[in-house]
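Problem statement: downstream parser choked on a complex file, so we are re-checking the raw output for the glyceraldehyde-3-phosphate run. The parser issue turned out to be on our end (a line-ending mismatch), but while we're here, posting the original submission so the record is complete.
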Amino acid sequence: ALVSMRQLLDHAAEHGYGIPAFNVNNLEQVQAIMEAAAETDSPVIMQASAGARKYAGEGFLKYLIQAAVESYPHIPVVMHQDHGQSPKVCQGAIDLGFSSVMMDGSLKEDGKTIADYDYNVEVTKKVVDIAHKLGVTVEGELGCLGSLETMEGDKEDGHGADGKLTMDQLLTDPEQAADFVRRTQLDALAIAIGTSHGAYKFTRKPTGDILSISRIKEIHARLPNTHLVMHGSSSVPQELLAEIREFGGNMKETYGVPVEEIQEAIKYGVRKINIDTDIRLAMTGAIRRFFAENPEKFDPREYLKPARAAAKAICVARYNEFGTAGNA
Ligand code: G3H
Ligand code: 13P
Ligand code: NA
Ligand code: ZN
């Protein structure tokens, strides 16, 4: 059944596990997530970015997720809007039937200018007022995703702050977080701790100076009852990079967020873990391999099948690693 995100996050907090939130853009990704959830008995958060809605069309996305809900009636499914850039976008998603929305007021509507704090409070509160009347969950964001190695905002997928950032902007302040939650009454808070979107997060396996799990602990100590969200949480598995390279891809050396760091974060209030890139890498590796091994093939079903299986394998792994399995 379609459920609110609050319901799932409350259960996760009560039982001390995390839930991966997978981005979806097409049929095969939706199917992969649902197959993985069914196999591991996991609750599902599927999220659609503005880019996803543009790619697939809102109606197609809505009914793909609806089809997932109907095909797996025993699995709770959240349909979440990822990175809504204005109250208007969030309202549109709510009208379409999303059970959860993110108002990302850390940036202005252009998705690249850093917003001031009062603006963020105002737009987030506005969405909470609209959404809560309808039982829709709201995620907000405080702080700017970006690299503590380069001090740059995250730009790889076309949204993220322009130019150089300060440490204060790249790491969410616990006191300000407490004020933000109190003033907005949101359900889940996305925080900045040094992660960024896309495949190129870190130039080396991250240590505490560039991936601040200690900041999560400080925020959780100040806000023990708030559900925290980690964006940019793909692990960028080295074996997937190797597969892509082996079959003709060009991907430079890069590192993601290690699963064991996410597992540590889950002990300190992180309940929703956003993952898009790992599924992209898995599908691309499988498709590159397929064509390298079967150059005569041309039926999309034949190459999308291994791609779907590779995406499913990532989802199964994360459901098990985050403790989501068994909680549907
Ligand atoms: O928010 C980041 C997600 O990875 C979505 O990326 O905007 O390219 O769909 P996208
Ligand atoms: P990744 O790029 O690390 O998968 O992060 C996705 C994300 O945060 C979507 O909001
Ligand atoms: Na989100
Ligand atoms: Zn994100």
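For whoever reads this later: The CA atoms of residues 238 and 255 lie 8 Å apart.
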